[in-house]
Design brief:
244 residues, alpha/beta, 4-stranded mixed sheet, 6 helices, 12 strands, flat
């Protein structure tokens, strides 16, 4: 098993097999770890094994196998893959858009009411729709960020989108803000609450009472329901485009 080690943290990659299916197994060593721990990432199904620095790997993998029933239960609770295929429906804020594909149409994705009209080879359909969603996310999130920044009386820097696994947004001390492009598929109240949260960090680079009060003021409502929605439904957004 290949591994790259350093004095404080090391990782190695393997796999956990369930019949013909193989799931990534990431082994992480840390001096801070006091015992072995297992977790399953609901965003991608990766299994993570955390180990104390001096724990034996062979014994740890035997322990992982003993935890197979627990791992299989966690994997069984993962969101279902949602491939982008002809006829699939994709949430865009508070709307549902149907993927309307025909091979003889132009390849560029265009929106026509409640349809995403697209052509070209079917095996490239998913990639084209995902790129369209990312462009839409950048446009909408940039516009809303500047709207909230004007409301707060602050300057913001560059706006970007990516596909992080652990954050829906981040604000750098210099004013640059990045978002998960997948927010474009969340309800509008969830997306806007996330934008208000990041813009509020231009005033308060912490999560104290004044920060939370500013978020609510910018949003004009309590952001707690948006946070709850992401806790319950956020992982499923990471499965859009999988399995296609």
């Amino acid at each position: 098993m290949p591994a790259i080690w350093n004095p404080t943290l090391s990782t190695a990659s393997s796999e956990f097999r369930i019949g013909a299916d193989a799931r990534p197994l990431t082994v992480v060593r840390s001096r801070a770890a006091r015992r072995m721990r297992l977790s399953v990432d609901p965003r991608n199904g990766t299994i993570r094994l955390s180990l104390p620095a001096r724990a034996g790997l062979k014994a740890a993998l035997v322990w992982v196998e003993a935890q197979r029933p627990w791992i299989e239960r966690q994997l069984g609770r993962l969101p279902a893959p949602r491939p982008i295929l002809p006829g699939a429906e994709i949430a865009l804020g508070d709307e549902l858009l149907a993927v309307d594909w025909a091979a003889d149409r132009p390849r560029a994705v265009r929106r026509d009411g409640s349809r995403l009209v697209v052509g070209g080879p079917e095996d490239a359909l998913s990639g084209r729709v995902l790129r369209w969603l990312k462009r839409e996310a950048l446009d909408v999130l940039s516009r809303e960020s500047r709207e909230f920044a004007a409301q707060a009386g602050v300057e913001i820097g560059r706006i970007g989108v990516g596909d992080p696994r652990s954050r829906w947004g981040s604000c750098a001390a210099g004013g640059d803000i990045r978002y998960s492009w997948r927010l474009i598929m969340a309800p509008a109240f969830v997306r806007r609450a996330t934008v208000a949260h990041e813009v509020a960090h231009r005033v308060h680079m912490n999560h104290g009472p004044a920060f939370h009060a500013l978020v609510a003021d910018l949003l004009g409502s309590d952001p707690a329901p948006a946070r709850q929605w992401l806790r319950v439904n956020g992982a499923a957004l990471h499965w859009v485009g999988r399995g296609s």
